[in-house]
Amino acid sequence: MIRLPKYLWLLLFVNCSSRYKNMSSLIVLPSFNILSIDSSICLRSENIPSGYSLIFMYFSPSCEHCQKEIKEIVENSQKFGTAKIYCISNDPLEEIKHFYSQFHLSSNKNIVVGQDYNYTFYNHFLPPSVPFMAIYDNTKKLIKIYKGEVNVNSLVYSIQQ
User: Are strands 42-44 and 33-36 parallel, antiparallel or unpaired?
Assistant: First the structure.
């Protein structure tokens, strides 16, 4: 066991957790913009209505884990009830559109897909990998963050609390 003075352990802890040093800024849904896949609407997070659980999935259209995740979400969409799912990517719009059509996301009114065109979502959350999920309750308060693939039942459990 390495013996370090207490202040060095604290410094090590602070440095290791610095990636989410702004975690308190995520407690309430931060401000970010999403461009719709047809480029006609810029959705501002401030305009997302309260009253619904919110799932923000940061993804890459070419990521196999993201594809598996969205496939499971779509197959289990009835379990999510009225929760709104926002799939956000900073990849090129054409790739996002392909992802949207590949998984028939237009048929699910609770799923919104868009582009993080100015990296505002990315800059707030700093996702270390994709898929990355941020779950908010119906008052836009942070419930949970998931890094990597998540079991659909865990997502459903998170929004039901």
Answer: antiparallel
For the stretch 18-61, pLDDT in tens is: 444 455 668 999 999 999 998 999 999 999 999 999 999 999 99
- The alpha-carbon radius of gyration of the chain (Å, integer) is 17
Element (H, E) at 57: strand 54-58
Pairing mode of beta strands 142-147, 54-58: unpaired
**What are the CA-CA distances from residue 69 to residues 59, 65, 119, 133 (Å)?**
10, 6, 22, 11
Given 3.40.1360.10, 3.40.50.300, 3.40.30.10, 3.30.1330.60, which CATH number is that of 22-160?
3.40.30.10
